[in-house]
Design brief:
By secondary structure, the chain is an alpha/beta fold. It has a single domain, classed as 2-enoyl-CoA Hydratase, Chain A, domain 1. It has nine helices and ten strands. It has a five-stranded mixed beta sheet with strand order 2-3-4-5-7. Strands 6-8-10 form a three-stranded mixed beta sheet.
Length: about 230
């Protein structure tokens, strides 16, 4: 069994327990859930809008054998379906992109549960003008009270990916559900969070603040760019 498959089984087990306990977690949003618009186009799928219960099933039915990337424009939503979508994205090695497939990305956001899906991408991009929003999980009741259990599950999943730096996890954990910490396109690029392929989390953490060493002929361009951003 592959590492990703083991993660999928583990996360699926957590979801089963949560279902039995009727503990449904949401990432903090103050508007009623209406469900995301999930649609297939050529070789990509677009997730647009708030993520609601059942959207993971819609996503699974929407992706096709030709799907290679997922475009994300969403304020977030329920943690359960967001994690399920993230597991599918990682298992199928999709590329994730913050912003619309066409038109300007200015002001577009992928926040809360949407950010989890973005981090799950095999490769990750953010379009100029777009932002990623991070904060901790909240309980479904009122969606303003911090959920320690939901937060622990979210952070455990992100850590299992091996590409999310610890400082990002700390930022998520320290930001209250009623607040949001945004990272814009330039910051994402400078920090190497959208590296293609993604740098391992330990390398991102250890190289922060250091200058790029003299380039040698065999260093790939993507690695040079990522290290320069550190």
């Amino acid at each position: 069994m592959s590492v990703i498959s083991k993660i999928q089984v583990s996360v699926a087990g957590e979801f089963a327990v949560l279902s039995q306990l009727a503990a449904v977690f949401a990432l903090a949003l103050l508007t009623p859930a209406v469900g995301a618009d999930i649609s297939a186009h050529e070789n990509f799928v677009v997730i647009w809008g708030q993520i609601d219960r059942g959207d993971d099933a819609v996503f699974q039915e929407t992706v096709t054998l030709t799907t290679t990337k997922i475009y994300l424009v969403s304020p977030g939503g329920y943690l359960d379906p967001a994690l399920r979508i993230a597991v599918m994205v990682r298992d199928r090695e999709y590329e994730t992109v913050v912003g619309p497939p066409r038109g300007s990305a200015s002001g577009r956001v992928c926040a809360s549960g949407c950010a989890i899906i973005w981090f799950a991408g095999k490769t990750r991009r953010i379009l100029p003008g777009a932002r990623i929003g991070l904060h901790s999980a909240a309980t479904a009741v009122g969606r303003t009270t911090r959920s320690d259990s939901g937060n622990a599950m979210m952070i455990a999943y992100l850590r299992s990916l091996g590409t999310v730096p610890e400082w990002v996890l700390s930022l998520i954990d320290e930001t209250e559900p009623t607040a949001m910490h945004y990272i814009n396109h330039d910051e994402v690029t400078q920090l190497g969070l959208d590296s293609r392929p993604s740098l391992p989390a330990w390398l991102q953490d250890n190289l922060r603040g250091f200058l790029l060493p003299p380039t040698k002929g065999g260093t790939p361009a993507w690695l040079q760019d990522a290290l320069r951003g550190q």
